[in-house]
Specification:
By secondary structure, the chain is mostly beta strands. It contains no helices and 15 strands. Strand 2 and strand 3 form a beta hairpin. It starts with 27 loop residues before the first strand and ends with a strand.
C-alpha cells in the first residue's frame, strides 16, 4: 500500500498483507431420530435425507439432531416450536461436549415431548459473522395408533340361503373370498393373523397390508 497526502507526497510502499474473504456459512444440520417402516418391510433409522413418509412422522419423544460446524465454530442454537409456539422460552445452546474438535456435533432433546406437530430451527454464526439457519418440520406420535376391526366387508360376507337369516350378512360367516375391513390411525402397516375356532393357526396365517 502507498499513501498520498494533499500535497502530493507519497509514502514508502508498505509490506504486503493477506486477508481471507468468507461470505458463506457451511454449517450442516439434520434431524436424526426415530424409525420408519419402508414399503419393502425394512425398518430404518431416519434423518432429514431419508424421510419417505410425507408427514415426517416419528415416534421418538426426545429427537436427536446432528451436523457439522465450520472450523473454529463451537456452538449452535436450537429453537423448537409446537403448533406455532415456542416449546422452550430460550434457545437451546449446543456447545461444550456436544461439539467435537473437528466441528461435528450431536444433541438430543432432554425433555420428553408430547404428541403434535413441530418445527425446528438450528442457527450458527461462524467466525466471520455469517449466520445460517436450517429448519424443518416433523410430527411426533408417541401414543401410538388407534385400531379397530369390523370384520368381513358386506360384499364378502355371504348371506345364508335359508330363513330366518336370509337377510343377514353381518354374521362373519362366508363361502366367498374373505375381505376384512377396519380403521387405523397413524399406522404404516396392519398385520392380520388367522386362527381357527379350535385355536389352531390356519395354513395361510398372516397377511400384511401396507397403508398408503
Amino acid at each position: 500500500m502507498i499513501a498520498t497526502d494533499l500535497a502530493g507526497q507519497t509514502s514508502a510502499e508498505s509490506s504486503a498483507k493477506e486477508f481471507e474473504l468468507d461470505t458463506v456459512n457451511t454449517m450442516t444440520a439434520t434431524m436424526d431420530s426415530g424409525v420408519q417402516l419402508n414399503a419393502d418391510e425394512t425398518v430404518v433409522k431416519i434423518s432429514d435425507q431419508e424421510w419417505t413418509n410425507p408427514e415426517r412422522l416419528t415416534n421418538d419423544s426426545t429427537p436427536r439432531f446432528s451436523g457439522q460446524l465450520e472450523a473454529g465454530d463451537s456452538s449452535i442454537e436450537l429453537v423448537l416450536f409446537k403448533d406455532g409456539s415456542k416449546v422452550f422460552a430460550d434457545p437451546i445452546v449446543i456447545d461444550g461436549d456436544a461439539v467435537q474438535a473437528d466441528g461435528s456435533w450431536q444433541y438430543e432433546i432432554k425433555s420428553l415431548l408430547g404428541d403434535g406437530e413441530y418445527r425446528y430451527e438450528l442457527t450458527s454464526i461462524d467466525v466471520s459473522g455469517n449466520s445460517k439457519t436450517i429448519q424443518g418440520d416433523f410430527e411426533l406420535n408417541v401414543a401410538g395408533n388407534l385400531l379397530s376391526a369390523t370384520g368381513l366387508t358386506d360384499a364378502s360376507d355371504s348371506e345364508p340361503a335359508v330363513a330366518p337369516e336370509a337377510a343377514e350378512s353381518t354374521d362373519n360367516i362366508t363361502n366367498l373370498d374373505p375381505v376384512l375391513e377396519g380403521f387405523a390411525t397413524s399406522a404404516v402397516r396392519v398385520e392380520v393373523v388367522l386362527v381357527s375356532r379350535t385355536g389352531g393357526l390356519c395354513l395361510l396365517q398372516r397377511f400384511i397390508k401396507i397403508l398408503t
